[in-house]
Amino acid sequence: MFPGPTLEVKNGDTLVVKVVNRARYNVTIHWHGIRQMRTGWADGPEFVTQCPIRPGGSYTYR
Q: Which InterPro entries match (predicted)?
């Protein structure tokens, strides 16, 4: 889905997002507007800040 749905959370909430890659190519997620405090490895371009989610694979962001 592009763009993805809007996620609304309150300060202090815990957000868990499971991404399932149903594409035929690698994907990664960039979280616009989310400060990456000690989790920069889970945001951005593949093989730069994180490994890609391979076709048929999944990744759970916490």
A: Cu-oxidase-like_N, Cu-oxidase_fam, Cupredoxin
* pLDDT (0 to 100) of residue 47: 79
Are 42 and 50 in contact, with CB atoms under 8 Å apart?
Answer: yes
Which residue spans within the chain are E strands per DSSP? 17-20, 58-61
Burial group, residue 32, by CB count within 10 angstroms (0-12, 13-18, 19+): exposed
Global confidence as pTM:
0.71
What CA–CA distance (Å, rounded) separates 35 from 37? 6
State how many domains the chain has.
1
Q: State how far the Cα of 6 lies from the Cα of 9, in Å rounded to an integer.
A: 10
> What is the CATH classification number for the domain harbouring 35?
2.60.40.420
